[in-house]
Specification:
GO terms for molecular function: carbonyl reductase (NADPH) activity; L-xylulose reductase (NADPH) activity. With 266 residues, this protein is of the alpha/beta class. It has helices spanning 18-29, 41-50, 64-71, 97-116, 126-133, 155-175, 193-198, 202-209, 225-233; strands at 9-13, 33-38, 55-58, 79-82, 137-142, 180-187, 247-249, 255-261. The chain has nine helices and eight strands. Strand 1 (9-13), helix 1 and strand 2 form a beta-alpha-beta unit. Helix 4 (97-116) runs parallel beside helix 6.
C-alpha cells in the first residue's frame, strides 16, 4: 500500500523491533517526519543507520518521569502509534507483583501517558496539541487478539490488551469531537522476536494454528502495516469508521489475518 504522509509528524513507540520498526521505516518512506521511541539504544542506532531522517528517543516507557522528560520537547504530533509492549508469560497462580506492574506500566499506562505528552514547558498532551492547532490527528493503539480470547499463561498480557481496547474506546469518545481519531489494531500472533518467545513450543503452536483458517501465524510484521495505515487514512475518504471493519474470525475468536477495532465514535 503506497501512502503519502508528507508534512506529517509521526511518533511511534516500541520502534526498535518488530511491528514498530517496520512501521517507522514505512512512515519515513511515505514522507513523514518520524520520532522513534524505544528503550534500547542499540536498536535506535541501527534504525538511524538504516534511515538517517528518523529522530531517535531512548527511554523506558515504564518510567513516567523519564518519559515526560524525554518527550516533552518533541513538537506537534499528527500521527501517534502506541506500539510498545512487553509479554511476561506465566501461569495465573505464578504471576508476581513485579510482573503485573511492569506489564501494565508498559502496555497500558504508557499508552495513556504518551497519548497525553506534547511540547510544553510543563506538560501538555498530544491530544491537547492537536486540539489547539485545530488540525485534528490520529492515534492508533496496537492491541492484540489476546484482548478478545483467553490464552493459557497470558493472564496479565490478556488483561493489559483488554484494558487497551477499552481505553481506546474512551479516548475515541472524548477526543472525537476535536477531530482526533483514536483506533486500535488487534493483530493475531506475529512472529517478531517477542512473538517467537511466546510461541516457540511446536505443540503450543499446533493447538493455536489448528484454529486459524490459513493454518499459520503472521510471519512478517510488515503484513500488519496495512491495518495501521487504514486507520490513518480514515480522516479523508472514510471519516466514519466503526468497530470491526476487518474481522476474519473463526472459532475461539482467533484470526487468520487481523482485526481492526476502529472505535471512533461520531
Amino acid at each position: 500500500m503506497e501512502v503519502s504522509f508528507r508534512g506529517k509528524h509521526a511518533l511511534v513507540t516500541g520502534a526498535g523491533k518488530g511491528i514498530g520498526r517496520d512501521l517507522v521505516l514505512a512512515l519515513a518512506h511515505g514522507g513523514a517526519k518520524v520520532t522513534a521511541v524505544t528503550r534500547t539504544q542499540a536498536d535506535l542506532n541501527s534504525l538511524v543507520q538504516e534511515c538517517p531522517s528518523i529522530t531517535p528517543v531512548c527511554v523506558d516507557l515504564a518510567d513516567w518521569g523519564a518519559t515526560e522528560a524525554a518527550l516533552k520537547d518533541i513538537g506537534p504530533i499528527d500521527l501517534l502509534v502506541n506500539n510498545a509492549a512487553c509479554a511476561k508469560l506465566q501461569p495465573f497462580l505464578e504471576v508476581t507483583q513485579d510482573q503485573f506492574e511492569q506489564s501494565f506500566s508498559v502496555n497500558v499506562k504508557a499508552v495513556l501517558q504518551v497519548s497525553q505528552l506534547w511540547q510544553s514547558t510543563l506538560l501538555k498532551i498530544v491530544a491537547r496539541g492537536m486540539k489547539a492547532r485545530g488540525s485534528g490527528g490520529s492515534i492508533v493503539n496496537v492491541s492484540s487478539q489476546a484482548s478478545q480470547c483467553a490464552l493459557r499463561d497470558h493472564a496479565v498480557y490478556c488483561a493489559t490488551k483488554g484494558a487497551v481496547d477499552m481505553l481506546t474506546k474512551v479516548m475515541a469518545l472524548e477526543l472525537g469531537p476535536h477531530q482526533i481519531r483514536v483506533n486500535a489494531v488487534n493483530p493475531t500472533v506475529v512472529l517478531t522476536q517477542m512473538g517467537r518467545l511466546g510461541w516457540s513450543d511446536p505443540e503450543k503452536v499446533k493447538t493455536m494454528t489448528s484454529r486459524i483458517p490459513l493454518g499459520r501465524f503472521a510471519g512478517q510484521p510488515l503484513q500488519h502495516l496495512q491495518a495501521v495505515f487504514l486507520s490513518f487514512i480514515s480522516s479523508g475518504s472514510q471519516p466514519y469508521l466503526y468497530k470491526h471493519i476487518v474481522q476474519n474470525c473463526c472459532e475461539f475468536g482467533l484470526c487468520s489475518w487481523f482485526i481492526i477495532g476502529c472505535f471512533t465514535v461520531f
